[in-house]
# Entry
Amino acid sequence: MTFSIRLPQNSELPDAADEMDTEGCIQCQMGSKLVLFITGHCHWMCDYCPLSETRREIDFMYANERKIEIGDWQSVIEESRAMNATGAGITGGDPVMARERVLEGARILKAEFGPDFHLHMYTSIPFKPEWADEFAAAGIDEIRFHFLNLESEKYRDTITACSNSGMLTGVELPCEPDKENELMQLLEKMREMDVQFLNLNELEITVGNHDNMELRGFNLSTEITAGAAGSSELSIAMRDRVMAAQLGLPDPIDGVTREPYGFHLKFCTATYKDSGQLRRRFIRRGEHTISPHETLTDDGTLIFGALSSTPDEQEEWINEICKETGLPSRFLYWDELNSRIEMPLVVAEDIASTVDADVSMVEVTPTYERMELTVVFLNSKS
# Structure
């Protein structure tokens, strides 16, 4: 009998970031950025918001997948160390809704890991320009603005203040396929803004926004991605326009040669976010937290064998397995929560036919909660 949950995968993933990408993007693509969800509160209800009901408008923190009480910075540090993080992306909700928390967290992380620990933050709020120096002084290295309703003008003063403060300043948006004219016009408006980059994300259809996306007539582009049909094509057209202008070439669509825009445009697909960045982050955490009895897969998951046992019998089982196989006891682990003895998979396969107990192969994520993805029973004794 087999129980299985699969993570999205794509064998054709780019190995290296573009040399023009921001440091935040580069570290995300390496899988070395801690995802610090600072609050679920937001001042806006975007119909394409991908957040699930378990996070939306809930004032909790998450460090990667680990739920953390507000202000428990020691747990944030522990999760950072567990994946050997080189930085953190501060997200939400909207982090500016918890401004003091952001400032406190940034100071603590910089003090703990040093000035090179890269911090980038997302917001859709055109906050007071004088706050820019506060964020920069606390340690925010990079800030990304989400223009609500694609309205850019109200962000101008805040963006200028952020750039003047020394933070790398740019814009990050989902690419809505029914907003082609507005997005192309935005490229022209951003010429006059003090931004260094524009990140376009493929619009994702998720559990959190599925009904709203259906109302707007969006469908999935393929069966293996959460991307909305048309979003990728529009993103690529916008990227090609910016690249052509930079090179002094005619636009591939309308043939017009435009002046350089002065900012870098990056397009990030839904598939790459899910199966590229996430997988690399899992691999990184797995490498730093793996136990002697576990094997790290290319998918970034951990596999091992397991023998079902009661608490009263587990010590006897461990002694017998060590005696019969010659396996050192450090390769056996009693999992009290799941009432099983974990061991190398090869050992579980060897003993499955000879022991009077359920033996299985287990696959888990290398996250704090260690979510089970697959359980394959190698025998059936119960």
Notes: The chain has eleven helices and 16 strands. The first helix runs from residue 23 to 30.
